[in-house]
């Protein structure tokens, strides 16, 4: 169900056991994500996207764009469209 997840792992040349350790789980638990037997929790999806430097949408096959989306700059002052001077 999640072939991209498997392909990303293989591209990094790591085993399911190693990926499980990175995520703090067993190889069996991680394997169930790759096969689609278990849904991937949001927190794990975030960690996987950060680890592989990609987007959650790419992992879930919602886009073919591998590069992650830019993070918002929270330090920038946001314009208020409702503000009147």
Descriptive overview:
The chain has 85 residues and is an all-alpha fold. It contains five helices and no strands. The protein has helices at 3-11, 16-23, 27-35, 42-52, 56-59. 13% of the residues are buried. The model has no long low-confidence stretch (mean pLDDT 88).
Keywords:
5 helices, 85 residues, mainly alpha
Rg estimate, integer Å: 17 Å
Helix content range: 40-55%
Distance between termini? 53 Å
Parts with pLDDT < 50 across at least 5 consecutive residues: none
Strand content: under 5%
User: What structural class results from the helix and strand content?
Assistant: mainly alpha
Give a quick account of the main beta sheet: strands, pairing sense, barrel closure: none
Overall 3D form:
globular
In N-to-C order, the SSE pattern is HHHHH
Q: Give the overall average pLDDT.
A: 88
What is the number of beta strands? 0
Please give the count of helices: 5
